[in-house]
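ingest -> validate -> predict -> emit
validate: passed (alphabet ok, no gaps, 136 aa)
predict: started
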Amino acid sequence: MSPLVDPFESFRSEVLKGSDASLDRLAFLIPACGTGWLDFDYQIGRLDDLAEEFGGTEASELMGWMAIRGFRGNAKQYYDPDNSFLNRVIDRGLGIPISLSVLAIEVGRRCGIELVGIGLPTEFIVAERDNPDRFH
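emit:
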């Protein structure tokens, strides 16, 4: 089990790293700020397990796998806070565009697929780093 940390201080420290910040750690610090704790090693391991389960090498395969695996937007309860908490998105398969994008970025990173997030008006999507005109 990961040692208990002050989630607010950890989030602040991670953000101050700038481009060296760990997206997966930041994403798991968000729910930790609400609950006061989270087993980071366990949660990071869940991302590792998803990447192993996926096992592909193409962004389009990843998007298809996520849909088949049941990851989707929560249109019925869009404003449910659980949609923003990466650990709960993994648990339920439900999220909002940004949390689903973070999941895709992190699973992809573990499989050698470089995705970047793109914020659009009222939407958040991902694109391949080496092919930024190819959106997913």
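The longest helix spans residues 40-54.
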